[in-house]
């Protein structure tokens, strides 16, 4: 049986909040714990900085920031497997958030890529893509709601 695997997941959301507020919700641990990693988060949002996202049911996922341009772009590599820092090709995907002003709010675009290059069987790649698609959709909706309601 042939398994078709998407290499890239793309989602976008309009956030009725200023771009600096969206950036803050996107990149600070106290907000990330609410919209993405309820088990906790540690992040150094600078190029080369380490990050860790925790979920009680899945473990701790490690990554490394590749690029961080305030109010514009946040890009990092995130390990496929919990409790493992990615050290080589095929161990992580690339997650990128791009922000742009739109009217009185912000357009937030997410892309997760590199799924086909993961060093796991095709069915595991397909499962990751399916789960990530659902997870990112709900996470972006939650992020948008927090940023729209937040005043700090």
TrEMBL record:
Ranges where the Activator of Hsp90 ATPase homologue 1/2-like C-terminal domain occurs: 17-146
Signal peptide: none
UniProt-listed InterPro entries: ASHA1/2-like_C, START-like_dom_sf
Pfam families: AHSA1
Domain of life: Bacteria
Family assignment from sequence similarity: Belongs to the AHA1 family.
Stated name of the protein: Activator of Hsp90 ATPase homologue 1/2-like C-terminal domain-containing protein
Species of the source: Streptomyces mordarskii
UniProt lineage: Bacteria, Bacillati, Actinomycetota, Actinomycetes, Kitasatosporales
